[in-house]
Amino acid sequence: MRRSTSAQTEKAKARGRGPSLEKTARTRDAIIAAALQEFLEKGFADTTMEAVARRADIAKGTPYRYFPTKDALFEGVVRQRVAGALVEVNAANRAPGETVLAFLRRTMVPAMHDVERKGRAAIARLVLTEGARFPVLVDIYRREMFDPLLVELRALLQAARDEGELKSGVLVEHPDLLIAPIWYGIVHNELLHRRRKVDIGELFEVNLDLLFRR
Amino acid sequence: MRRSTSAQTEKAKARGRGPSLEKTARTRDAIIAAALQEFLEKGFADTTMEAVARRADIAKGTPYRYFPTKDALFEGVVRQRVAGALVEVNAANRAPGETVLAFLRRTMVPAMHDVERKGRAAIARLVLTEGARFPVLVDIYRREMFDPLLVELRALLQAARDEGELKSGVLVEHPDLLIAPIWYGIVHNELLHRRRKVDIGELFEVNLDLLFRR
Amino acid sequence: MRRSTSAQTEKAKARGRGPSLEKTARTRDAIIAAALQEFLEKGFADTTMEAVARRADIAKGTPYRYFPTKDALFEGVVRQRVAGALVEVNAANRAPGETVLAFLRRTMVPAMHDVERKGRAAIARLVLTEGARFPVLVDIYRREMFDPLLVELRALLQAARDEGELKSGVLVEHPDLLIAPIWYGIVHNELLHRRRKVDIGELFEVNLDLLFRR
Amino acid sequence: MRRSTSAQTEKAKARGRGPSLEKTARTRDAIIAAALQEFLEKGFADTTMEAVARRADIAKGTPYRYFPTKDALFEGVVRQRVAGALVEVNAANRAPGETVLAFLRRTMVPAMHDVERKGRAAIARLVLTEGARFPVLVDIYRREMFDPLLVELRALLQAARDEGELKSGVLVEHPDLLIAPIWYGIVHNELLHRRRKVDIGELFEVNLDLLFRR
DNA sequence: TATGAATGAGTATTCATTCAT
DNA sequence: GATGAATGAATACTCATTCAT
């Protein structure tokens, strides 16, 4: 545990990524993981830095070596999770001859089933419940998740219209209607009816079918 | 902050200390109004009792004469607003010969336009953002607003199905799809895109038309 | 209940002691009684003026018509009780030919038995527990109860010495030793062993006999 | 208040913030000492945590690192003092051939003189004045000090009776009479006559002699 | 780098007291 | 006189943050 500092530094320099750096990264991850759990369970205001440290099994002062303030920690946590989540729908990936409906079914429906399993719904909830206090989070979320998805959807719906798959152009004007059930599901499952959850994937699919019906 | 000092002084003098039913009611209303504003603007955690009192133009201790704790004040405020909001859709009010689609258009669409104007969206947001800390509020909201609306919608959709207005029974199974755009709109306007709002009424209407389309 | 004010005043003046004065005195007594109970049960610090008023079945502001402050109320309560308690032992009352021991037995022992029954021990306890905060109370108690008793006892012991009933003069120097068991009993019963009380009268008597033994 | 500002500043600088067992112990001692002084001077209710901290020359929040509440601080302080005070009289220590009277004189009388000097009378007073609010303290006091002493005394008096030193068995029934003057002295000196104190040791001794007189 | 003792600003809550009715 | 709504000073307690070790 107690090697001479110089020896440690040399080693680190020699490898370019010494054990201390690795440990540092591990500590950082532990802090983020612990903080996320706490924020999800208690919300920002009721989460204490001490609880985060305890959960990460480190000292109370250590998180401050990685994040200057509690606010920064929160932002860092959410930023990481949001940045890590890629948009699942990319119009460019549509197979030749594949209808838009088929494409959306193929890509979005499985993604929906992942929404809750991979904790994305929980992150979305956090952005919703704490967004008023942290506009940055909302900005990030919008930029990384919300807006890109709408852009893709709009393009897809435009293609569907152009290719005659959609009779009317109204959906092109309101791509929101495709994702409304998702948000409804998040609100329902995460905030309003935590016991009796709806199946977001199914809801999305049924809605999709109805909207694309001729 | 927003009043001239002299106006404040006059008010203070006007507000007496003696017993008076009228005064009591007025004070209570002032507290509730002030508290609601503060809670909406700052959230529960960042609202101080002192700020509420200041906003209501009363002394720091006065709110405690009406609500024993900050929690109780919050609950009281939200409870009052939620209880006061009646569900606008009552299947029994459908005019003879009126289609379900026409009925929903007639009743829901104007209600949607009221959602934001009358502050109901704001209350919904508060229930969403603080519901984790105050499960009672979620219970109330569900009991008074959410569940009753779904019940009515389900009955209407069943009628639409029975009367041949709907070809498929899938909507009867998922009345949620009718209100999904509303929640999407609330989330969008109140939490995600406070600058660029969507028109919840229009969204609801377009969605309605698409879902009822033959 | 609602007579004209003037009629009431006239009546009061006519009798010289009208019903309002009588009622006033009754209210005052109710306040004192209620306050004493509260102070005994909760101590000064934990007694609220509101609790006193509630117990006296009057409004919160009414006690202030009789006592300007809570301190004054406390002082008034104790003062009244202490002043009302006469010293039981008066050397002048000794019957001709009666030994001092016999006299003390005749007068003190029954008084001791009253100490607890009539709430004097409770008052003494209140003076002990709150005396540090209210030196006035201690002064009153000393002046009205403590010192006079010692004076009488000293005189009696001197007489006993002069009349040969006591062989030694040591008790004359320490009349305290006669009352020590009383205070011990008060401390024991009121503060240390509220469940298993000692019989103060018996303790006093046994001690008396031992001290007067030849 | 009692220190020059510069002295205070120096101290503050000397007190570091880092972990240190020695510092911890010193801080804890400072808190307990300061709290005891405050409680003795003001009583529990009138002692503020801020005053304790100021007296200990630490920050307002520091005492809470050692005692979770004001109640716990008070209990901790008294508990420590009561636990630290051993009963001076142990029947087993009686020298062979030593009379009980001589033994009591040898052991108790010096102890009495210590009672006030070492602050035991003050602790006893605190237990008396705050015992109603803190029954635990009374329990501790009884268990550690009061009951053990009575047990020893009863044994000694029984021995004195058995060995013919006492003619009557009445004292065996009432060992309280031996300690009555002590409590009288405490009440007198600590609460009733803080100016004109009695000599508890002398009172005890005179009483002892009178009770053991043949 | 990590630690955790110490800091002190911030806040909910209480309650003696006032005074218009 | 009595009432009780309103006042606001006082205070226990929390917790993000700092920094000597």
UniProtKB/TrEMBL annotation, chains A, B, C, D:
Cited InterPro entries:
Homeodomain-like_sf (IPR009057), HTH-type_TetR-like_transc_reg (IPR050109), HTH_TetR (IPR001647), Tet_transcr_reg_TetR-rel_C_sf (IPR036271)
Q: Describe the location of the HTH tetR-type domain by residue ranges.
A: 25-85
Q: Annotated region Disordered: where?
A: 1-23
Keyword annotations: DNA-binding
Q: Which residues bind DNA?
A: 48-67
Q: Where are the transmembrane segments?
A: none
Q: Which PANTHER family match?
A: HTH-TYPE TRANSCRIPTIONAL REGULATOR RUTR, HTH-TYPE TRANSCRIPTIONAL REGULATOR UIDR
Its protein name is TetR/AcrR family transcriptional regulator
Q: List the taxonomic lineage.
A: Bacteria, Pseudomonadati, Pseudomonadota, Alphaproteobacteria, Hyphomicrobiales
